[in-house]
TrEMBL record:
NCBIfam families: PRK03620.1 (NF002958). The keyword Ion transport does not apply. SMART domains: DHDPS. This is Probable 5-dehydro-4-deoxyglucarate dehydratase. It comes from the Bacteria. Belongs to the DapA family.
Length: 310
């Protein structure tokens, strides 16, 4: 863990590695390390270990600890490592402390397990999580953890909370949150956390949400980086090319199976030459024809970029 504030180090394309499993279903730390190393070498600006794409829900505390420690060792301070933390408050705190001892730089606070809390309950949950360690916390808004602008303002005032990742996709709500926090003279980092964030990258950027997670980076970092360069530089022609020819068809393909936001990504990582194993239950493997279709899409995206000289 470095001494530089996490908020100052999160700038660029964010990598959410899959967690590698061996044929017998156990965690394959060697394969996980290779996957993390490949992502950092390809240009990732941060590693978010054991989060949604990394099947946080399927890991034991010991496996979680070992994977976070492996990610920290592989990055060797080159980029920050942020670890997932979830379930109820007591377990979320437990995972947070495991992450801190493993050397993580921050936490991504997943939605609380099962219950649908009110705003006061959400605020108490995240405040206790932030107070439990010295790690900075990014709150993940989705499913049963949807914030009002007033709650977002309260979180921005909470020591240790530095960001909000949106996996809901309600741009109107996000605009209201950004405006409310800004009007109070407060700061948060904002992240687009939709499963294929690139499809809405330009829209989110228009309301001040400039950071995003890229699942595509796991299996096609060249396409993900080309999109990121185009977004940052304002290259609308390349953005349109990739959205129309790759990202929109990808989202349509992903909608054809439950759990594809994780399982289809992991299958594509395997097809790209990294043996990261299959997903754990309750997720299932994607249909082979859908994986074939995804790999054809990857080749199409690369051909589009080559044809455009991008």
């Amino acid at each position: 863990m470095t001494t530089a504030p996490l908020a100052d180090r999160l700038d660029g394309l964010l990598f959410f590695p899959v967690t590698a499993f061996a044929p017998d279903g156990s965690v394959d730390l060697a394969a996980f390390r290779a996957h993390v190393r490949a992502g950092v070498d390809a240009g990732a600006a941060a590693v978010f270990a054991c989060c949604g794409t990394g099947e946080f829900h399927a890991l034991t505390p010991e496996e979680f600890r070992d994977c976070v420690a492996a990610a920290v060792e592989e990055t060797a301070g080159r980029v920050p490592v942020v670890a997932g933390a979830g379930y109820g408050t007591a377990l979320a705190v437990h995972y947070a402390r495991l992450a801190e001892r493993a050397g993580a730089d921050g936490l991504l606070a997943m939605p609380p397990y099962l219950v649908v809390p009110d705003q006061a309950g959400l605020l108490r949950h995240y405040a206790r999580l932030a107070a439990a360690t010295s790690l900075d916390v990014i709150v993940y808004q989705r499913d049963n953890a949807v914030l009002t602008p007033d709650t977002a303002v309260a979180l921005a005032r909470t020591d240790g909370v530095i960001g909000l990742k949106d996996g809901l996709g309600d741009l109107g709500l996000m605009q209201r949150i950004v405006s409310a926090v800004r009007a109070e003279g407060l700061d948060l980092l904002y992240f687009n956390g939709l499963p294929s964030a690139e499809l809405t990258g330009a829209a989110y950027r228009g309301i001040g949400v400039t950071l995003y997670s890229s699942a595509v980076f796991c299996f096609a970092p060249d396409l993900a980086l080309a999109y990121h360069r185009a977004l940052v530089s304002g290259d609308d022609a390349t953005l349109d090319l990739l959205v129309d020819g790759f990202y929109r068809p990808l989202v349509e393909l992903r909608s054809r199976g439950r759990g594809y936001a994780v399982s289809l990504v992991k299958a594509a990582v395997r097809r790209s030459g990294q043996d990261v194993g299959e997903v754990r239950p309750p997720l299932s493997e994607p249909a082979p024809e859908h994986v074939d279709a995804l790999m054809r899409l990857v080749e199409r995206g690369r051909a589009l970029l080559k044809g455009a000289g991008a």
